[in-house]
Amino acid sequence: MQCEQVTPKSYPVNLIDKDWSERKLYFWSPAKSFPAMIHDMEVKEDDVWIVTNPKCGTTWMQELAWLLLNDCDFEAALSKDLELRSPFLEFDFMVNSDEQTALERVEELPSPRLIKSHLPLPLLPRQLWEKKAKVIYVFRNPKDAWVSGYYHGVTIGYNYGKTLEQFFDECLEQESDRRYIIEHAAEFYQLRNEPWFYYTSFERMKCNLRAVVEDLCKFLDKTVTEQQMERLLKHLSFEEMKKNPTTNHLWESTQIKLENGGKEVHNFVRKGKVNGYKDDLTPKQIEKADNFIAERLLLNQVTLEELLLVDKL
Ligand code: A3P
């Protein structure tokens, strides 16, 4: 997928003090005026936004947040694809490239809306920085996120015929949003103590999902009974989510019409491991990725342990 560099009309200077003019930001090409439309879109006070780098456990968190916002209505969750209950902000434009209709699904959603986005903070709606609707962020070790992204890309077509090594080199070397995975997270990490913001990691969800559910109940002002908690933990387990048709992006895959889509299929809820990258990458690739990540961490004055919330594991 081709990307182009974009410059937002304004930056979240009220939230983070940094030289934003140095921040490289990318959007799918042709971006047309869609980034500006997002910049100006209306955010509702009771919106809940889930923002992540791709493949960091977005779907997992979305299903959890949707259930909490909808009084643990498991039957409703099991009867409608998650991406129709909680739309992906950029998706429609990505597949149809039509600005007229791109935000319809999000705008028509009944409140409280649960909206997913992979956009970095400066490309999210300006009202989100000002109105401070609730935002949930999930980080994951970039090596696992990239490997997961490779297999997802093979399934939908854009990585079909490409080796994992080729894809990895693209992630580290090509100018696109993938190179800025650490910047994406580090900016949100700085907001972690804001009352309207909840920051967690895939690794923490794997380590103690109950604690994340409890955190999220507090954050969303919801309560669950012990019986509901037990059902939530089962419903959100890897095994259940893997076999649940509504959490495997089946509707979404019917919308993406890439030439090589569906020729080699990997389940969306695929492996669900922490450090699963060790089974896929060679020591040389791991070293290359580690050097790249270390460089970006240094530039952003944050450690991987901090971003992963290692002290909470
Ligand atoms: P893998 O490809 O490493 O298995 P996203 O929703 O952001 O695209 O993230 C997808 C990743 O989250 C996939 O990682 C998927 O398997 C994992 N995932 C989804 N639900 C999960 C669950 N209940 N438990 C563990 N991992 C889960």
From TrEMBL:
Stated family: Belongs to the sulfotransferase 1 family.
Keyword match Cell membrane: no
UniProt cross-references to PANTHER family, sorted A to Z: SULFOTRANSFERASE SULT
Recorded name of the encoding gene: Dgri\GH20667
Keyword Membrane among UniProt keywords: no
InterPro entries assigned: P-loop_NTPase, Sulfotransferase_dom
GO molecular-function terms, A-Z: sulfotransferase activity
Stretches assigned to the Sulfotransferase domain: 46-297
UniProt keyword list: Transferase
The name this protein goes by in its record: GH20667
Gene Ontology terms: biological process: defense response to bacterium; sulfation; xenobiotic metabolic process
